[in-house]
Amino acid sequence: MPQNQEILAQLDRILRSNVFANAARSSQFLSYCVTSKIHGENWSLKETSIAMEVFLREASYDPKVDPIVRVHARRVREKLAHYYRTTGRGDPILIELPKGSYVPQFLWAHGAHSPLLQPESEPKPLGIAREIEEEIAESPIRSEPVVIPVTQAIPTLPVEVRSTPRASHLRWIALFSSLALVIAFVAFLIIKRGDKSHPTSTVTSPQSLRPVDLLPPDAVDVAWSPDQKSVAFVQADGHNRTSVYVMEFGPGRAPRRLTHGVGNEYRPAWSPDGQQIALIRSPDDVRFVIVRVGTATGDETVTGPFTANLGVSLYHPVLDWSPDGKYLLTSNQVSPNVPSRLLLLRIADEARILLTSPPIRSAGDLEGKFSPDGKYVAFHRGGLGDLYVLRLNGESASEIRQLTADNRGVRGIAFTTDSKNILFASDRTQNDVFSIYKIPITGGTPTPVSPDGFVAVEPVALSQDVLAFRHVDLAMEFVEHHGNATPAPLFPGNEIDEAPAYSPDGNTIAFISTRSGAEQLWRFRRGDKAPEQLTHFSGEGFLFTPHWSPSGDQITLGFRENGATNIYVVNAKSGEVRKLTNGRSRNFNPVFSNDGTYIFFSSNEDGTPRLWRIAADGKRPAEPLFTQVVSNFAASPDGKWLYYIDYLDSLRLCRLNLFDGTTEAMLSIDARPVFTNSLVVTREGIYVAVAKPNEPYVRIERIDPTDKSQRTMWRIPASGESLPIVTPGFDVAQDGSRLLATRFLRHNSTVFTTQLSAQP
């Protein structure tokens, strides 16, 4: 039988073929079945499970009324047969979906005796346009009501505990990888985002703040023990490995490492009796297990695997312990195209019970907490996201209520000790920072409870009157690397500047900054004393990496506001802004074509993730090009290729032919992309920013597009104790002589406590 990595490589070939490229649902169906099989999750290959996970049907799904799974199984079998008779005739591995079963089979191809390889008597047209319409029609965008009654309990899914191979990102993971970066990027944004609303309620006075000095300065994921005499937290070592530590409060107390397992650890959560700590352990930031560790004995109980295709980030996946100690709350994302869902893990028999069904085009449900009385779960839905609360009825949700609807972001959730209010960090202040707010579980207007202008995230209610939270202080500057010279600041910085981009002649730098309060596009011309603000966007929103036109007279970038991201073009001299797209979904990563006539961008505007093109002058509407969606892409100087990064088992540099839609994998790098935008294409070469295990720096690799040779050009020191997993990006001048990167001047994190009763 073929090995798992060989099977995944074969699946990748199938999904990239013309037979499957324009059939998103068939691709998702096949991918779900194959990945579930190789990860030992045959329990999920049932008609009801497939309907819920692939087609996002509700728990009340009845296969007798809705035959969507059987219909698509037939389509997948037909497409596989057609693929192996045509494009895949010489492939080494057969992937079959036997009739009457959803469990695929993997076989070595041994000549033409296989039924799949027999010649087709009369080739049938694929009807690609019709199938695209069917795919879109079968996955409508469902609006989310404010209150959602749940009339039927979600069935319990038993699961076996076993070890599995590392999961692979699949064909369309680039889209969801970009979503994951947006989600993780919220951590970087927490000190600079905000709308201009001004809540009128009073807040905690700064004089009442007390730092928890005993904690290490780089401690994150801080969890207080039930008796509040100890804390568990996550800390990274010098090799970028994160582990869980426990420390008792008191003179001379030192942190002790709780476990010595393989893989990064996150999200410590204390059992109600304080005898165990549950944590997330992940070998690859995609698959993870839940480990319960005895605080006194160190004995481990491992449950899993689970999947986090969005990637392990600051608040994904979820982990919290129910007040009665019978359940763990976590999240699971069975395939890259399915939103993350909350589920209960019943500790007694390790059964998994789904709680939520987020909309198909959302990032899903990412963060959650039980109420102290065990009757509610509060959670965060979407990328920046809004706050929701559900009422528990046994092992199911009887009602889901949306508490905020303005996409202002959520960064940390906690209940007050009486279970009547929810504390959450959000960006609603006049000073453009995250603060702690309180809102009743029945809904209402969020009211601030932390000092205005003082960054506060990850709240914890230690008592009805005492609040703990984490404060972040961040500043950075741009540093230019030129030859063997010592890297030097481009201009003085004590600000939050990000996403630098050289103009084609290298004399001007465009970047995003909050120097004026709100996030705006700025420029700096060599010889000037200070940067100059170029745009004056108003209202809540944030900008993504700018890209110059080949002539240097225009800049394109994405701007997200009110839950939608759209493409804009800015005059590089006057700052005049034109809005090119007006969608209600995600149009992102715009880049100019080699002649400046078009702008390429990724979008799921029509319901299917794909690459689009729009005229840069806005006189012609946007048009879809290929179903295959990539992120981190840039056009080649000759206009023939779009180079892009595909993160499979290792990082792959690929290119997409803009004339016929074919793709080519140029080379693989045993590393991971480290920046939000990790790819730069210049006239002189292709540059990729990567991080390798156990290296305390980021490599900037140059790849020659002609002979595909690879060379390390620069090494950027890591920030602090660990590599910057998501940072503001980098750029290389068109002649390859200069590198522009970001250096952190200040990146401090401190846990504070405050007396809520100190409010006047």
From TrEMBL:
<dbReference type="InterPro" id="IPR011042">
    <property type="entry name" value="6-blade_b-propeller_TolB-like"/>
</dbReference>
<keyword id="KW-0812">Transmembrane</keyword>
<dbReference type="Pfam" id="PF07676">
    <property type="entry name" value="PD40"/>
</dbReference>
<feature type="transmembrane region" description="Helical">
    <location>
        <begin position="172"/>
        <end position="191"/>
    </location>
</feature>
<comment type="similarity">
    <text>Belongs to the TolB family.</text>
</comment>
<keyword id="KW-1133">Transmembrane helix</keyword>
<dbReference type="InterPro" id="IPR011044">
    <property type="entry name" value="Quino_amine_DH_bsu"/>
</dbReference>
<protein>
    <submittedName>
        <fullName>Component of the Tol biopolymer transport system</fullName>
    </submittedName>
</protein>
<keyword id="KW-0472">Membrane</keyword>
<dbReference type="InterPro" id="IPR011659">
    <property type="entry name" value="WD40"/>
</dbReference>
